[in-house]
Batch of 2 targets.
Target 1
Amino acid sequence: MEDEARPHLEREGALSADIQIERSMDIHYYGQVREQNAAVPTGPVTAASLATTVERFHDKAPAG
């Protein structure tokens, strides 16, 4: 999606230097309705980057 977004934004007139892509995931615990948004690290999606994302989710998720 990132590879498709950059050229599209540039065709629309955005300067390459101004384009910032931020990755995130909406995550929730089983049985919960509301999601928390957690930032996903840049680079390839790996087990380590997913673990970091889950950690970030746990840091934001309400207790209980």
Target 2
Amino acid sequence: MAVIKTSLVAGGAGFIGSNLCEYLIKKGRNVICVDNLFTGNRENIRNLLVKDNFLFINHDVVNPLFLDEMLIDEVYNLTCSGAAVHFQYNAIRTLKINTIGTMNLLGLAKKHKAKFLQVSSAGVYGDPLENPQPETYNGNVNPIGPRACYTEGKRVAETFCYEYNQKYGIDTKIVRLFDTYGPGLNINDGRVIPTFIVQALTGMDITIQGDGKQTRSYSYVTDIVEALYKLMERSGVNVPINVGGETEIEILELAKLIKKLTKSKSKITYEPVFSQDSYRRNPDITRAREILKWKPTTSLEAGLKHTIADLKKELSNNLI
């Protein structure tokens, strides 16, 4: 009889984390979801709470987590929201989550001899001077500034993974996620896609920071979850791997596409840039293609249609 693996997902009640929990449940895993519900939402995992192979633990990973009575096979670290409105709210707390929190989870993985997957970020490249960005690019990062608590925190988290692999032999894996979207996004998290969609659906101006020539490469959440799972299944892959979309799009063109898909009459307007975000964010996903045999399969237009429908429903519920 096959042994059922147990997966611990830290940040499992968040946008990507809850989708990963659901995916792992469908794969027959026992899933332990750990979240302090600061940016995660219990509603995201409501349908999983009734399942026998799902356990939710309300816990802040800045504090050590002791699960001596359980056997854990793998740890996914999806803690710390990538939305600036959240990580800038308490920058010191953000640093602690990315550093102390990561160290605590690595300690848990070491104790259980579990595999460990760190969900890092394209933010480690800063405002890149190379395009697209390969994993070998060391970045152009400002260690002081409004985004440093997140970007530098993620860089240190990667260093922890490297050292735990070198010193203790923990099978650590690093995914550098680029911009992710899909159903379940918080309408108030300040990221571009939910902001534009809500503005378009409510008839407000679609507001672009800067000149609109900034670029991003978006990937749909189910594609991202598949990549995380594929990497966790590969033993001994300890180099960072970019995971993101293949199509680079200007923010202005994204606004026009969302306006078209929502059939909105909203005007597109411009405002000053408020944060030191990167001007171009576009991954080289050669490693993901070659090592994981992975590439995104959901087109931007198809994914946006699903996301628009979900946010339209959420807006309707908020008006009731």
